[in-house]
Amino acid sequence: MPVAPTTEPEAAVPAEPNRSLWKTLLTPRWLGLLALALAIAAVMSVLGVWQLDVYRSKTAAKTAERTAAAPVALQSLFPIDAGLPSKAVGRRVTVTGTWGPATDQLYISDRRLGDRNGFWVVTPVLLDTSGSGAGDGGTTNPSGAVMVVRGWVPSATDPAAKPPTGQVQLVGAIVASEAQDASGDDTEGRILQSLRIPTIVHLVDYRIYDAFVVMSSSTPAPATLAPTVVPPPAPPTDHAGLRNVAYAFQWWIFAAFTLWMWTRMLQDAHRTPTRPESPPTPA
Predict the structure, then answer these.
(1) Over the Cα atoms of the chain, what is R_g?
(2) What whole-number distance in Å separates Cα of residue 99 and Cα of residue 84?
(3) Which DSSP string do the residues of 65-101 spell out, in sequence order?
(4) How far apart are CA 31 and CA 26, in angstroms?
(5) TM segments (predicted)?
(6) What is the pLDDT of residue 268?
């Protein structure tokens, strides 16, 4: 009686036990894919750097635009009772008023001009803060003031630091208070270590703006002996074009993802066993 041939199930082909990842990598196919992945990642990285340069360019242009704008009246930017808005820092302003009392003049120590150390001379300018009343047709509010950095002197006793008097109209740049605390300074000598409104507000008997003005010119012009005009500190950076920063990080993430995908594909190909060729099945 003929016996039907039995069909044996095909046995699974075990993976090569000593197969090296380098053996898979060093094949023309995977070397070519690596070159392609590196090229794509490089292009994406360059695009990210380009987006970052665009952000820096926009930021520099916006900051320069703020400092180059035509001067406006100080009172038009923010009121005396309000805090200093960030958009006002670095703006050029005009100030019209009267020089304050000589006893209210201050000096800020440890200020360099070139290779010399000295003092900034800070003098108040009393402002006319006239306004309209609610029901009496008009009243005049108590005078306020703004502290003006007139310039630099080598010592607090220099004759050029003599406080001016009379009416003045000046142009300058707005700067904010410095971070260093000056509450423990020797205020009796009117010498402070930092330029801070919270410290100065307790040394005068009138309201003052929450900002300083670094003077660049004045009318009438300063006397022959006058502090040396100093440039204002660099204004804070206007962070324009933050969307470009997001684009830059997006491109860099894409570049990293491209290399990660190539690595995953290589590992999957390495773990896949190589099936040996089976002999032809006889009829």
Answers:
(1) 37
(2) 22
(3) HHHHSPPEEHHHH--TTSPPPGGGTT-EEEEEEEE--
(4) 6
(5) 30-50, 245-263
(6) 80
As to burial, measured by CB atoms within 10 angstroms (0-12 exposed, 13-18 middle, 19+ buried), residue 207 is: middle
Domains of the chain, by residue range, sit at: 26-56+241-269, 90-131+139-219
The single residue listed with the structure tokens 């309201």 is 207
Structure tokens at 155: 């010592």
User: Cα–Cα distance between 148 and 45 in angstroms, integer?
Assistant: 48
Confidence (pLDDT) at 9: 52
Give pLDDT, residue 281: 61
CA torsion sign, 165 to 171 to 175 to 176? positive
Segment 242-268, tens digit of pLDDT: 788 888 899 999 999 998 988 888 888
Average pLDDT in the 11-29 region?
A: 64
Distance CA 37, CA 1 (A): 65
Q: Which residues contact 258 (CB under 8 A, 6 or more apart)?
A: 37, 40, 41, 44
Alpha-carbon dihedral angle through residues 102, 108, 110, 112, given to the nearest 10 degrees: -80
Q: CATH fold of 90-131+139-219, please?
A: OB fold (Dihydrolipoamide Acetyltransferase, E2P) (2.40.50)
Q: Are 267 and 22 in contact (CB under 8 A)?
A: no
Nearest to 77, CA basis, from 61, 66, 62:
66
The model scores a pTM over 0.90:
no
